[in-house]
Amino acid sequence: MITSTGSNFGVTGIQIKDYQTEDMAILEAVFEVDPSNADYQACDVMEIYVPSLRFKKSLESTGFIVYEAETDPRYPHESRNASTVVKVWIKDENTICIEKIGIYDDLEAFKIFICSLFIPSGKRVPFQKHTKTTLTCTSEAVYMRSGYTFAVIEDDWMFLVSPPGEISNSAISIVSELLVLAGAILGVKTSYDAKFIKIESDLQRKADKLENNE
Q1: DSSP per-residue string spanning 105-148
Q2: Segments of the chain scoring below 70 in pLDDT
Q3: With a threshold of 0.90, does the pTM exceed it?
Q4: Nearest CA to 119 among 55, 53, 50?
Q5: C-alpha 71: how far from its chain's center?
Q6: CA–centroid distance for 195 within its chain
Q7: Residues 103, 16, 114, 108: what is their CA dihedral angle, to the nearest 10 degrees?
Q8: pLDDT in tens, 12-36
Q9: Percentage of residues in the chain with pLDDT exceeding 70?
Q10: Distance (Å, rounded) from C-alpha 2 to C-alpha 18?
């Protein structure tokens, strides 16, 4: 367990569960961010300061920003939850960086979830294949179903993977309309391209005929 020594966005004492080797670091943490905090507003990239990590720099991994509230100030008559993915990386052995995107900055607060594996930058290691264990759910829900939910289980860490869930009808409808629009645009372009090719061919034939007559 790691306890942060500070941050540049106004959050202190972040508890980070960790498993680290020379070749990877698995970090898990959940904490709340106040967008109205002056430190948060002043930073371009969120930084968490920690006593020490096993390697100095990692490739980019991912985290999640989650907003949960009964009422969103932007939509006072609706209850809206929202989330998005952000980049997370180890900057050096004492700093974990989180991408600041600002789309929830007008809200009261949001949570950041870090549940990620990090690998060192610029280091080549042998590829290791892990065993997948398919899980049987005793109480199935939309996001966890038997046959689709599986885990990779090791002595010191585990990843749980569940299906992405259902796609709403509204999303399917929007994508369908965009595909129809794209098809229409491409169809019109193809039609004009064919007409231009025909006109160019006719003009070339007429030019060849005039040249032969001369």
Answers
A1: TTSS-EEEEEEEEE-BTT------PPPEEE---SS-BTTB-TTT
A2: 69-80, 127, 137-148, 162-197, 210-214
A3: no
A4: 55
A5: 25
A6: 44
A7: -20
A8: 999 999 888 888 888 899 999 999 9
A9: 67
A10: 7
